[in-house]
Amino acid sequence: MTTTTPALTLVDLLPVSDTQTWDQAACKGDPNHDAWFPYPSQDFDYARGICAGCPIRRQCAEFAATTGQSGVWGGHEFDRGKLLRD
Q: Would you list the DSSP string of 31-80?
């Protein structure tokens, strides 16, 4: 009998932090990983659309900026904590 490992979701990739609000993230359970880490030439409308209604959007973007994250955080694209695109 073979067992399969369940696919990771974006919330599984979120960093551990001292906030308890990550479970409220609108991206929780989203299986579309590539949308959250676009190449510079790709749009990030999908991720931005999910972030638009997120209750922790501001905190997420602040976390990315202060901890040097890359990818789409809080509806903005970051590269090592620097805002690339709104």
A: --GGGGS--TTS--HHHHHHHHT-TTHHHHHHHHHHHT--EEETTEEEET
Which 3 state secondary structure label does DSSP give 84? strand
Neighbours of 36 (CB within 10 A): 20
Contact 49, 57 (CB under 8 A): no
Nearest to 46 by CA among 31, 56, 35: 35
23-79 tens-digit pLDDT = 888 998 888 888 998 887 788 899 999 999 999 999 899 989 998 999 999 999 999
